[in-house]
Amino acid sequence: MLIYKTDETKIDNEFALDIKEGLTRTTNAKYILPKYLYDSVGSELFEVICDQPEYYPTRTELAILKQCSPQIVKLFNHQAPSIVELGSGSAKKTKILLEHFLLKKQNLYYFPIDVSHDILQYTMKKLSSEFSRLRTIGICADYIKGIEKAGDFIGARNPVPNRKLILFLGSTIGNFEPKNAKSFLRTIRRKMEKNDNLLLGIDLLKDKRIMEAAYNDKREITAKFNLNLLSRINRELGGEFVLSNFRHHAFFNQDKGRVEMHLISECDQQVVIDRIGECLSFAQNERVHTENSYKYSPAQIRGLANDAGLTLKKNFYDKKKWFSLSLLSPAV
To answer: What residues make up the domain containing 23?
Structure first.
């Protein structure tokens, strides 16, 4: 079982710098980048969120994968591609697609990319015990560095197939600002060869009540997930946040077409973060913006693909059209 890791010192320093940048703002709202939600604790909490009855994206995407996996496998008639997954997590959904490819009785190469080493280790161990013909090479890195590292193996070493199927599931693209989503997909496009494909999970616009409930589950797991950002700062940066002095708040912003997550200060308070050498002031009801989740229409998906130099081959929908799995290829 192989896991390749990027420079942890560099990642650690980047976290400190980003927290200082986001929480020392005086003219604009304070923020924390959403990628920092997914440390080992956050990743485990997110897996629990996915099982909550209010959180429709995971079970809906699972249903679509069960339906469309045979069609996707047919695209690769002679040899299964190398499968590269961005933000693999537990690979619960991905397993469905892997199973269908493995029915071809060939070895299958899978490159899960995740920032959590613990999650990668758990996932790879579980997959190797279930699938004897699955060759898994884990990469502990962010998305772009992970694809670049996977590229060192794909095509360079036989018998790893040259052709790639890149998976970006779970509607994570919605966490990007629209202009950044286009820029990110353009970067992915530059890493793709003409016969490669990208399978992109995208949450669709729907009834506001359904979307808001998904981010405000009754068990308050999402609240713990959000507040874990402050715990992480305490653990890794010598922060002194008192978690009970903040509360989780999530709502659908109609004008911007996105669900927003915030942490709201319950009182006037000051918080020391030793590692960045700051004593931060928070006013009562002041918000710290932690995540956006943009929801798309089918027309917006096509526009996003076109702007990124990709061709939309097919949208796979669930029966209610709550979610889309979009199959994309490089535009000619």
So the answer is: 2-52+208-294
Has residue 152 been placed in a domain?
no
* 146 to 102, 103, 122: CA distances (angstroms): 24, 27, 18
Structural contact between residues 230 and 236, judged by C-beta atoms closer than 8 angstroms: no
Q: Is residue 233 part of a domain?
A: yes
Residues 108-159 pLDDT 10s? 999 999 888 888 998 999 999 999 999 999 999 889 999 999 988 886 666 7
The answer to whether the beta carbons of residues 128 and 137 sit under 8 Å apart is no
| Residue 47 CB contacts under 8 Å (≥ 6 apart), including other chains | 89, 90, 92
Which residues fall within 8 angstroms of residue 314, CB to CB, at 6 or more apart?
326, 327
253 belongs to a structural domain: yes
Dihedral sign (CA 111, 117, 120, 126): positive
How many distinct structural domains can be found in the chain?
Answer: 1
Count of positions (residues) in the chain: 332
Asked if residue 31 is part of any domain, the answer here is yes
SS (H, E, C) the chain: CEEEECCHHHHHHHHHHHHHHHHCCCCCCEECCHHHHCCHHHHHHHHHHCCCCCCHHHHHHHHHHHHHHHHHHHCCCCCCCEEEEECCCCCCCHHHHHHHHHCCCCCEEEEEEECCHHHHHHHHHHHHHHCCCEEEEEEECCHHHHHHHHHHHCCCCCCCCCCEEEEECCCHHHHCCHHHHHHHHHHHHHCCCCCCEEEEEEEECCCHHHHHHHCCCCCCHHHHHHHHHHHHHHHHHCECCCHHHEEEEEEEECCCCEEEEEEEECCCEEEEEHHHCEEEEECCCCEEEEEEEECECHHHHHHHHHHCCEEEEEEEECCCCCEEEEEEEECC
pTM assigned to the model: 0.90
pLDDT of residue 159: 78
Contact partners, residue 196, CB within 8 Å, separation at least 6 = 81, 163, 164, 165, 166, 329, 330
